[in-house]
Amino acid sequence: MSRICELTGRTRQVGHNVSHANNKTKRVFLPNLQNVTLLSEALEKGVRLRVSTHGLRSVEHVGGLDNWLIKTSDEKLSLKARRLKREVSKKRAVAVAA
């Protein structure tokens, strides 16, 4: 399973270990991914996603999962999150029409 945040698209970064003698060797910085259940107000259910801690803070800052999905571009989102965004959009459209 790839180490990519499903909401922010955050992935691994590459850098160097630098020794005291200034020798550089390649290393990888992995995102802090957590399996979480986020509540969707429009769908009235919990959704399990693999999200970075940075992504979790961002979702809370924006005001919840539904607001985050609507504001985020599709390029950053995973396939699962894009499908979820489509469902939320449809539910919101139905709620506005009613």
Can you tell me about this structure?
Helices cover 37% and strands 29% of the residues. With 98 residues, the protein is α+β, with helices and mostly antiparallel strands. The strands form two sheets. A two-stranded antiparallel ribbon has the order 1-2. The longest helix is centred in the C-terminal third of the chain and has 19 residues, at 79-97. It is elongated. The chain starts with 12 loop residues before the first strand and ends with a helix. The mean pLDDT is 94.
Task: Based on the model shown, name its key terms.
elongated; 3 helices; two-stranded antiparallel sheet; 37% helix; 98 residues; alpha+beta; 29% strand
What are the secondary-structure elements, in order, as H or E? Answer: EEEEHHH
Tally of individual helices? 3
Mean pLDDT: 94
User: Structural class of the secondary elements?
Assistant: alpha+beta
First-residue to last-residue Cα separation: 41 Å
For the sheet with most strands, the description reads: 2 strands, antiparallel
β-strand percent reads: 25-35%
Order of strands in the sheet with most strands: 1-2
Tally of DSSP β-strands: 4
Give the uncertain stretches in residue-range form.
Answer: none
Q: Percent helix among the residues?
A: 25-40%
